[in-house]
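*** Protein under study ***
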Amino acid sequence: MTLGLFGGFGIELEYMVVDRETFAVRPIADHLLHRFAGAFVGDYEDGPIAWSNELALHVLELKTNGVVALPGDALAGFRGSLARIDAALEGLGARLMPGGMHPTMDPAREFVRWPHDYGEVYAAYDRIFDCRGHGWSNLQSCHLNLPFADDAEFGRLHLAVRTLLPLLPALAASSPYRDGAFHGWLDGRLAVYRDNQRRVPRIAGLVVPEPVTTRADYFATILEPIWNDIAPFDPDRLLREEWLNSRGAVAKFFRDAVEIRVLDVQEQPAADLAICTLVVAVLRALCVERWASMASLQALDTRELAEVLWAVAKDGDEAVVAHPGLLRALGRGESALRVGSLWASLADAVLPDEAPLAAELQSALATIFARGPLARRIVVACGERPDARSLAWLGRELADCLRAGTAFSP
């Protein structure tokens, strides 16, 4: 079934499997899936939510099993699956922990690659890029998938997504620590993500995608050059697929959707779904040219948008956006704005036009607007140089938030 623009949504949430006492990563996602599926498989369908493996054996992905009419419609399904997983992991001495990065994981020592189905593809990535690093093995995100029916809808959606992309970490940054310390970026996941494939830099490009508007142009401008660059490292052509493209938003023409990939996963699904709901509302306004024409969106320079993205990934809601073209595209005039204030004004402008937000989603957004993204709340709670005791407390609090469905708001 072909879905038109905003005709449904797919959402993916990634979590870490950690020790129930020490909160160190536990590479046992395959054993969890085996417990439910009865075999070492990469996927298991739990009613409205599907579970699947990732590159790292300690990461588990939960995703909508099909599409939902509104992001918030997935909340009950995610919570049901999380409860079943938590009960199963308890017997293995483990639990799930949210957050864009594990704050103390040592990838060189603790990374274990998924060894089962699809393992040859992961082995190829490991051979080419060496996945024993934070940029490969210590990343958890929320992916938002938005459908399109044809080139006309794809062009509008793709231009709208690349316009909004640089501002998303102000809402979703949740990865301030790596190696037990704050390295200056609230969205540390993006800081390591942008460089994880530097051996073939065209794969991620500038992370902000180029302003292409048709399938043919996308293949000619983005995919074919990526495949040509990887070819010397991939003689078996295992990686010559659309999913090799690692920009922060990617077109997946095999299912006619654009996938946004720069959102860190939050402490509970209601926060992820609240962010997705706001993002969808702003994208809808951009697609109908509420504030600016498609031509003006297409004219936004990719490198300049990328510079905004890195400033926002570093400083989150406190970053200041002064790019006049971007501000005009969002109907905010041309005066520089703190990104937190910009998002609050966008929410006031677009959310009344959406279906009523569930109280839990409203509360999650209110927490973000009042106290900043999860990363800022973590640094306020634990400091820039947290000790082992603080980090152990943080792991427990985050895992408890995920289990109980509550905000991290110490």
